[in-house]
Amino acid sequence: MLKEYAGRVRLIFKDLPLPSHELARPAHEAARCAGALGRYWPYHDKLFANQPSFERADLVRYAGEVGLSRETFTACLDARRFAPEVEADVEQARAIGVRGTPTFVINGRVVAGALPVEDFRTVIDEALKDKP
Amino acid sequence: MVNGVRSRTARRPGVYLRKASLVLLVLALVLVRAVAAVEMLGDITVEPTMVKGSPTAPVTIVEFSDYQ
């Protein structure tokens, strides 16, 4: 979608690990560690490709696979360096009434659930009409 | 009953007024909630490493997601 709408759409990813998914929060913290080391999106894609294998050993292995230093990454992960940032995202979601995942906010319009690509195109095209 | 015909009791204007007020109140609450949600979007923090696409793009998609 981002390629299709290059220059016209930007994506902001927000962490919303659900309480029922006990391995999700460490995975979100791990992704932020990868981001701090310059490999956020490759790590992000790696996590989605390997759901739900998010044990600590998996998270460290993925770091190595995307080219990160395992030692530096592990230090960040074990220190839970980004726990406050992940929690802040959860709080922001709660504050605007977002409860489930995935939820998208497209120029202020809330779209809940994994909708077909065509539905996203419709919402994006409408948003572009409002802001050509 | 009047001559076998059920007579409809005319409702006092106050009844309609109360119903209209209730409907307006519900609509107002829905509107306030929607406006509050949109205003809260302005308070969303953005971590630069977690953004893709042009910063000047006219459309911004905020995705709240769970890896698991």
The end-to-end distance of chain B, rounded to whole angstroms, is: 67 Å
Radius of gyration of chain A: 16 Å
State the helical fraction of chain A.
40-55%
Q: Rg of chain B to the nearest angstrom?
A: 26 Å
Protein traits:
heterodimer; A: 132 residues; mainly alpha; two-stranded antiparallel sheet; 3 strands; B: 68 residues; alpha+beta; 1 helix; elongated
Short note summarizing the structure:
The complex is a heterodimer of chains A (132) and B (68). Chain A is mainly alpha-helical. Helix content of chain A is 53%, strand content 11%.
Describe what you observe in this structure.
The complex is a heterodimer of chains A (132) and B (68). By secondary structure, chain A is mainly alpha-helical. Chain A has helices spanning 24-36, 40-49, 56-65, 70-79, 83-95, 117-130, and strands spanning 9-15, 103-106, 109-112. In chain A, a hairpin with a 2-residue loop joins strand 2 and strand 3 (109-112). The radius of gyration of chain A is 16 Å and the shape is globular. The two termini of chain A are 18 Å apart. Chain B has one helix and two strands, in the order αββ. The A-B interface holds A 2, 5-18, 21, 23-24, 27-28, 31-32, 35-36, 38, 40-41, 47-48, 51-52, 54, 85, 88-89, 92-93, 95-98, 101-108, 110, 124, 127-128, 131-132 and B 33, 37-38, 40-41, 43-47, 49-55, 57-68. Strand 2 of chain A pairs antiparallel with strand 2 (59-65) of chain B, so a sheet runs across the interface.
Question: What layout of secondary structure does this protein have?
Answer:
The complex is a heterodimer of chains A (132) and B (68).
Chain A: E1 9-15, H1 24-36, H2 40-49, H3 56-65, H4 70-79, H5 83-95, E2 103-106, E3 109-112, H6 117-130
Helix pairs in contact in A: 1-2, 1-3
Chain B: H1 13-41, E1 51-52, E2 59-65
